[in-house]
Amino acid sequence: FQGGDTCEYLLSSGRFLGEKVWQPHSCMMHKYKNSEAKNCLIDKHIVFIGDSRIRQLFYSFIKLINPQVKEEGNKHGNIPFEDKSSSIKVDFLWYPEVNGSMRQRIKSWTEGSVAKPHIIVVGAATWSIKIHNGSNEALAQYKINITSIAPLLEKLAKSSDVYWVLQDPVYEDMLSESRKMITNEKIDAYNEAAVRILNSSSRNSKAKVKVFSVSKLIAQETIMNSADGLHLPESSRDTNAMILMNVYCNKIMKPIDGSCCQPQPPLTLIQKMAFCFFTLSIIGYLIMSLIHRNNYRKNKSCTDLESGEEKKPSISTPNVSTLEMLLHSFCKLGLIMTYFYLCDRANLFMKENKFYTHSSFFIPIVYILVLGVFYTENTKETKVLNREQTDEWKGWMQLVILIYHISGASTFLPVYMHIRVLVAAYLFQTGYGHFSYFWIKGDFGVYRVCQVLFRLNFLVVVLCIVMDRPYQFYYFVPLVTVWFMIIYATLAIWPQIVQKKANGNCLWHFGLLLKLICLLTCIYFLSYSQGTFEKIFSFWPLSKCFELNGNVYEWWFRWKLDRYVVFHGMLFAFIYLALQKRQMISEGKGDPLFSNRVSNVLLFISVVSFLTYSIWASSCKNKTECNELHPSVSVVQILAFILIRNIPGYVRSVYSSFFAWFGKISLELFICQYHIWLAADTKGILVLIPGYPMFNVLVSTFIFVCVAHEISQITNDLAQIVVPKDNSTLLKRLLCIGGFFSGLHLFATIQDQSRH
User: Fold this and answer.
1) How many whole angstroms separate alpha carbon 590 and alpha carbon 581?
2) Looking at 87, 101, 176, 228, which residue is catalytic?
3) Cis ω on the peptide bond leading into residue 24 (within 30° of 0)?
4) First CA to last CA across the chain, in angstroms?
5) Angle at which helices 413-441 and 596-618 pack, to 10 degrees?
6) Alpha helix ranges (H) inside 547-665
7) Cα 50 from chain centroid?
8) Nearest-CA neighbor of 541 among 734, 736, 741?
9) Exposed end of the chain (fewer CB within 10 Å): N or C?
10) pLDDT, position 319
11) Around Cβ 147, how many Cβ atoms within 10 Å?
């Protein structure tokens, strides 16, 4: 860590990812839309001063404000631009040489009577080389002129952003005869003189003219695509304009995926309180450990030499061990949350943009599939969707989703559509698993509900506090939480129909089907009534949980995208358990699920259905249209996979322990990736080891997986303490939790008021 300003990195260093994507060193560059550019530059005056290369940059810059602008007008004259809707004024001033005329123009802005531009972009040299035929006298005069201009620029830099654009290299083989004297050797000499003089001037002044040298690096890679060997191709100058926009606007707009030039956000009141809590937990645990160790030494067991028996100390009590476990868990959690904060909130580690290539997605997929097959073991039971199998399913899906996120594969529509099926499959398992539990066990007690809600939400609630993010930001957890409550409400409301009751009277099966039909009707109605849906979730306190950026549209979109799949999971569980009860399927080890003929037919239909869906998803042309069909058709590939995985007896009797291990911590992996594997809230990639992309991924992945596993253990330990089985104790804990969230809401309100 060099401790440097990311603005300096943005202006001076970087590399190309592929052909056209520029990656600044150590930080992420935001791609500004027209509306964002206008909001940033409202009531601003920007001036570009220089030659034809600066004019190119001027046009690329104003196209970020208004893409309809055409490159017209006098090439060797001043060009004005104004966006009246946002009161933005951008001028190009034709001063192809650094001379007295340019000095006079700059000097006029330093005088008190003239309004100063907010941004000044200056640069020139090639005309001096061309007119004076590359003479040494011209270079000497250039140095004298810059020396006289530098103090004026420093004076302007106190109140405005001033950028000196270094000269880009040329492609000498393509230059016309009249430009042959413009060589890269001469350009380097002029650039060296400008940098030396400007740096010397800045040492004597608090303000600093920013040297825009990154354009040189970009030109070195792209100048061979130039039309005349002198001027940059359009894609390169657009990149320069976007860099300029990031340098000025990131600190104003604070885009999530624009970490360059962004200051570290100040700690909020709630974050400070969380820091104090974890610090006290660590201190408390250390004190308890010291006390425990001293007591252990005093009462250390020793052997009675006469009887040969060991005398055992009698010091620990259940209360002490519970408190110690609580402090130990919060101590570990505090250290982990510090790592989270340092990775994605402090400007300590570097961040980079994602860049998708087919190899970056498919090669890791093949690699983990080979690993998964290598670790094959026999299952303890051979039922359909047994525990080992569902853990395995969650595990490989989670690994594929992680690779999808880090590779930026969402830009490739066929991959996106298949990943949508994996997310739907998670929700399918939610419907299947919770329905099966309530149907078989008939346990609708508060303890079960609180256990599930705690395990699902604990990590997200902590991250909302530490990382200052809304609950809806971690969209998957609100999704599975709401669906769990819907499943619970559907089965718990009168009449409560469970398997034991239905076995006594078949009519209860029809009663349950009627409940499921009512649920489907409600889902269908809400999916086509956005207004009703938004009204329901806009009521306080639901609005506090489901609002993102001031509205619940994002929540409605996420819910609607997989609205039927949980119902499909519940229906599948009901049909499967009914068939199992009537012994219409065979689940013995090595036995096919049905008779050979039926199994073969179902297997053939499943394979065809699976491939048909993949072909359809791969031929998708429009994400919006495919998303509209996805809720209804995703179940086809999910059911096809279940049947392919379970009909053959041998396949059902084995599982991958490698995938199952990851499946047990799949929720933690999904949530933790936001901040300690990816970066900038999933928009970029965390860089712990710059310059070595593969090694960086290995190290960050190892830490990420270890942290997710540790958080899973902490959650399980705390669930036993926070959610006890005794109803009276549980009620007290619920009152405490209610008080905690009330206090959190109060502090959040105070925090919001102080921000406004």
Assistant:
1) 20
2) 228
3) no
4) 34
5) 140
6) 553-561, 565-581, 596-618, 623-646, 649-652, 657-664
7) 40
8) 741
9) C
10) 46
11) 14
Assess whether pLDDT exceeds 60 at residue 305.
no
Tell the residue number behind the tokens 């961040």, with chain if given: 351
> Catalytic: which of 25, 30, 45, 231?
231
Domain boundaries, the chain: 6-253, 354-723, 726-755
Does the reported pTM lie above 0.85? yes
Residue with tokens 């053959």: 648
Q: Which residue has the tokens 């070195």?
A: 220
What does the alpha-carbon distance between residue 669 and residue 426 come to, in Å, rounded to a whole number? 14
Considering only CA atoms, which of 121, 50, 51, 125 is closest in space to residue 90?
A: 121
Beta strands in 124-274 (DSSP E): 161-165, 210-212
> Quick one: CA dihedral 88, 94, 95, 100, positive or negative?
negative
For the cut 70, the answer to whether the pLDDT of residue 376 exceeds it is yes
Q: What is the pLDDT of residue 712?
A: 97
181-200 confidence digits (pLDDT tens)? 999 999 999 999 999 999 88
Tokens of 134: 């590359």
What type of residue is 105? R
- Do residues 504 and 581 touch, judged by C-beta distance below 8 A? no
Residue 218 · residue 192 · CB < 8 Å: no
Q: Classify the phi-psi angles of 134: left when phi > 0, otherwise alpha if psi is within -120 to 50, otherwise beta.
A: left
C-alpha 40/C-alpha 499 separation (Å) is 61
Bridging pattern class, strands 678-679 and 88-94:
unpaired
Rounded to the nearest 5°, which phi and psi values hold at 46? Answer: -120, 140
Cross-strand partners of 48:
92, 121
Whole-number Å distance between alpha carbons of 616 and 636: 12
How far apart are the C-alpha atoms of 701 and 708, rounded to whole Å? 10
**CB-CB neighbours of 204 under 10 Å:** 9
Contact residues for 245 (Cβ-Cβ < 8 A; gap 6+): 32, 37, 40, 61, 64
Angle at the Cα of 498 from the Cα atoms of 495 and 502, rounded to 5 degrees: 95
> 67 burial class (0-12, 13-18, 19+ CB within 10 angstroms)?
exposed
* Omega before 541 within 30 of 0, i.e. cis: yes
Residues 314-373: tens digit of each pLDDT = 444 444 578 889 999 999 999 999 999 999 988 888 899 999 999 999 999 999 999 999
C-alpha span between 684 and 673 (Å, rounded): 11
Q: How many angstroms separate the CA atoms of 325 and 332, rounded?
A: 11
| DSSP letter (8 states) at residue 209 | P
* CA 495 – CA 482 distance, rounded (Å): 21
- Identify whether the C-beta of residue 264 lies closer than 8 Å to the C-beta of residue 33: no
d(CA 446, CA 734): 10
Instruction: Report CA dihedral (146, 151, 152, 155) to the nearest 10 degrees.
Output: 150
Provide the mean pLDDT of the chain. 92
- Whether 228 is a known active-site residue: answer yes
Q: Give residue 601's Cα distance to chain centre.
A: 43
**CB neighbourhood size of 168 (10 A):** 26
Residue type, 568: H
Q: Mind spelling out the 3-state secondary structure of 242-298?
A: HHHHHHHHHHHHCCCCCCCCCCCCCCCHHHHHHHHHHHHHHHHHHHHHHHHHHHHHH
Tell me which CATH code domain 6-253 carries.
Answer: 3.40.50.1110
- What are 550's two structure tokens? 């001031």
Cβ atoms 603, 641 nearer than 8 A: no
Query: Closest Cα partner for 609 from 647, 643, 659, 651?
Result: 643
What sign results for the dihedral spanned by CA atoms 635, 637, 638, 641? positive
Tell the residue number behind the tokens 């322990």, with chain if given. Answer: 657
Q: What count of other Cβ atoms lies within 10 Å of the Cβ of residue 286?
A: 12
**What is the secondary structure of 647-704 as a DSSP string?**
SSHHHHTEEEHHHHHHHHTHHHHHHHHHHHTEETTTTEEEESSTT-HHHHHHHHHHHH
Of these residues, 52, 148, 235, 657, which one is catalytic?
52
